[in-house]
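To: structure desk
From: M.T.
Subject: fold request, one chain
Message: Could you run this one when you get a chance? Sequence is below, nothing fancy, just the single chain.
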Amino acid sequence: MNSVICTLFEGHYHYGLGALANSLYAKGFRGTIFAGYRGELPPWITNAKMLGDVTEFSPADGLIIRFVRLTEKIHLTNFKPEFMLSLWEKHCPDAESLFYFDPDITVIGRWTFFEEWVGAGVAVCADFNQSLPPNHPLHFAWKKFYEPKGITFRREPALYFNGGFLGLRREQIEFLHCWKKLQALMAPEIGGLQNVNMRDRTYLFHKTDQDALNVAVLASEAAISPLGQDGMDLQPGGGGYVMSHAVGGEKPWRKNFVRALLKFGWSPSRADHYFFRNVESPIRLYPPGTLARKRFFLKVAAGLGRLLGKQ
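Reply: Done. Structure tokens follow.
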């Protein structure tokens, strides 16, 4: 299958992009990753070349990262469906399937599983707070908001899905158009798509792009193929087998592991460990000395966490 991957990043999230690319390569992906970005290109790029308005970098045989500079003013997390549609329209019109990953995800399952997965429907994963049974107050609020605007609700799954990953085949592109339309209808309610994380979870659009994604699951005509929390390694006790998602504000590449343990009681997560397994090849994200130091403190914090019963 001709599959293309994409992500969106800015600033220090280039570390996550590098680890994502390394993990995909390690699990068998060969092809092109499109990375939409603002600001500066990652410092680990070497021997890049310009292809029109795209910067191309190939860190290994069979792996290409194409950087697309973005000028849109909306928040990047709200730009996902528009970015994916623009790729299919302009940059990879022949792609049979398209996958979006947040740049704080590493892939831990074989790549061919992802291509098999989208054969069953639009691929989505349950969120950390996954319960959203039929006639949940959020379902009710979304219907009250969208149905007068002409949106039909077609299903009521019992799960709430994470917006950090989406996979679909070309024939399911209607889902992206639906997601984009829902965000456009949402924009006036939240004061514009430059805004995210509105109010608290009692508000119908607390997690803007993610809430709109969940409404798209309810409203789209496309078949949906959901995984539970094991899809993103979010369930208590671990056991994820597809991806590991470093949810939360402190990302693995910025985290002081010993301080986090001693001050907050946070042991290194599975996502922290998976990140540091994917920082050397084919993209080297750290000088050897820096990487050795970071891995040492990760190991110390993990050991102390076990002693203190924090895992």
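Reply (cont.): The two ends are 40 Å apart (CA to CA). Let me know if you need anything else for the meeting.
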